[in-house]
Amino acid sequence: MNSILKFNFTVDKEKNAVHVAREFDAPRDLVWTAWTTPEILDQWWAPKPYRTQTKSMDFRVGGHWLYAMISPENVAHWCRADYQSIETLQSYSALDAFCDEYGNINTEFPRSQWNNRFSELSDKTLVNITIQYEKLEDLEKIISLGFKEGFTMAMENLDQYIEAQFKLRRENKTQNTARVCTYLNFDGKTEEAFLFYQSVFKTEFIGKGIQRFGQLPADENHPPVAKAVKNMVLHVELPITGNHVLMGTDAPKEMGFNLSKGNNMHICIEPESREEAQRLFDALSADGNVTMPLQDLFWGAYYGEFSDKFGINWMINFQNANFINKVNH
Fold first, then answer.
1. Banded pLDDT at 104 (limits 50, 70, 90)
2. Which end of the chain has fewer CB within 10 Å, C or N?
């Protein structure tokens, strides 16, 4: 987390409540998307070394989010949030509980009432969170289980995820010129693979070359990068034949990734305009399987993922140059 961003965490024992004020360095619509889209929540909601896995999500009044917090030993702790009110881009409330994998409430743990409000602050967003418990002993039980520490880490995960996955791509592409890339994920073998590709195509890496997770700027407010992950490749870009670009990253399980053959390679199209991004997404995904709808996301891109009707994986990524230049300056 950027140290200049606001983060207040207070416990009000008289009202059996926790109050959190957390600022994010992104517009409100993008922060709202990050909090209400399961594919993105799965990337940051759980405190490390846990990861989040959504089973189902129906974001509407009367709907619910059923998800698991999965430990490094693959033990799943199931949770359920029942949505009670939603004002798009402004606020939502939900009743949270521990449960089993089918959504049946575990009455041994207290439920909590969440009220989240999203406010615009120039180019930043302030999220005010109130978590209400029925009894003081319920509040104290949750605090004793390390809720403050875990929730703090979850908030930091969102900042770190933005930086780790997309900062270097913004630096390497500073214009809206269209290009087609192939995005590759490896289980720790990205460097070996890209040195091999470099020897074959006899080209040079773009930008700063091979960047590693351990090179992320130190920040006392960020959870540290796991030792086993530090030397893994964060991002690399290599031009090959015909100006085609290979991009690559390691997908460490310590950061919640579940890599398998079939989901480790995408054709990534970066069109010149938002309209062309929409056209390509709609045409290519017809009769396919959309894994992330095309939408404005918190790293400043209009982005979506899907596999087409033939089983080929695609990414559509329109990165607005105005946003890129704003972030880099």
1. very high
2. C
Separation CA 21–CA 30 (nearest Å): 17
Cβ-based neighbour number of residue 284 at 10 Å:
17
**CA–CA gap between residue 56 and residue 64 (Å, rounded):** 8
Q: Between 321-328 and 147-172, two packed helices, what is the crossing angle to 10 degrees?
A: 110
The reported pLDDT for the residue numbered 32 is 86
| Sequence letter at residue 213 | F
Phi–psi pair at 73, nearest 5 degrees: -90, 10
Contact 118, 32 (CB under 8 A): yes
**Cα–Cα distance for residue pair 50/53, rounded to 1 Å:** 10
pLDDT digits (tens, 9 = 90+) for 135-145: 999 899 888 88
CA gap 110, 97 in Å, rounded: 7
Q: What is the layout of strands, in order, in the sheet containing 245-250? A: 211-212, 233-239, 245-250, 179-186, 265-270, 313-319, 301-307, 289-296
Task: List C-alpha distances in Å: 227 to 22, 44, 224, 230.
Answer: 28, 19, 9, 5
* The pLDDT of residue 326 is above 80: no
* Cα 6 to chain centroid, rounded: 20
SS3 content of the chain, % helix, strand, coil (to 5): 30, 35, 35
Which tens digit of pLDDT belongs to each residue from 22-75? 988 777 877 888 889 888 888 889 888 888 999 999 999 999 999 999 998 999
Distances, alpha carbon 241 to alpha carbons 71, 181, 197, 244, in Å: 43, 12, 11, 6
